Amino acid sequence: MLSERRLEVLRAIVQDYVGTEEPVGSKALTERHRLGVSPATVRNDMAVLEEEGFIAQPHTSAGRIPTDKGYRLFVDKLAGVKPLSSPERRAIQNFLDGAVDLDDVVGRTVRLLAQLTRQVAVVQYPSLTRSTVRHVELLSLAPARLMLVLITDTGRVEQRLVDCPAPFGETSLADLRARLNSRVVGRRFADVPQLVQDLPESFENEDRGTVSTVLSILLETLVEETEERLMIGGTSNLTRFGHDFPVMIRPVLEALEEQVVLLKLLGEAKDSGMTVRIGHENAHEGLNSTSVVAVGYGSGDEAVAKLGVVGPTRMDYPGTMGAVRAVARYVGQILAES
Known about the structure:
The protein has helices at residues 4-20, 26-32, 39-51, 68-78, 86-97, 102-117, 170-184, 192-196, 205-223, 250-256, 259-266, 317-337; strands at residues 55-56, 65-66, 120-124, 133-142, 145-152, 157-163, 230-233, 275-278, 290-297, 305-312. The two termini are 49 Å apart. The protein has 12 helices and 10 strands.
């Protein structure tokens, strides 16, 4: 275990390196921070930190920089989440309140996160599997063609065309719409198949084929993998950090183009707490020089998706964590009120 003084030295090194982009020396530390000890003592503390793998010496400098292990300790023990100022919170609320639908909410959230953190922002669309049904609409397009519209509690809208095996009248359509909604509204998607399985039997023989077809399309919609949708923004922010990537920025950009990689980065939505993965903790090799800060968001206590940012390991962790958490909270409020 490191002593409190050495933890303070590590905290100071991280803060200075993040702020100045320059390796940090003992003289600079004692000048900028009230450590209460001499430069010689600080040098000794830095030697111990280096021996333990928390800081390292770039070959071109006499100063030291944090390692992934050093950042990890900083995040776990030394960094509080920096709260946003009142103007920042108002700006978030005003920006997100203007959204007109779910796509607009996600798009605005991506832009906002990228602007607040100056990193790459990633927002996952609310997952269907963790949503509940708000309404099912059935619209007649032709005597034997319908449109099925599924609306979720998170504001997501899915539309499907249904080709019926026989003409389906307006009276039957209204009857099916009413019976279907009475069974599924407010229920979780996972429960819907069981709730509607006997519905065709309650209709006249000539209508059962169409009812079964509509239910088949509805159930297909519930299980489709279209739920794993992402929006990404602020990729150009990475160009400001070219010197933070030891080889080149291309592997990072290529990794960010792969949706499967991004979904793994964000992690499981059911894990709604704050996740910070640093450097080599990211399994994808192209992202070994980046850190990911992610958190779940939702319309209630349970997260329906994740959002977060990707940036260099030399990141303002307290500020980034505060921004990500605040934006997630506001998005959750918007979904709850929509």
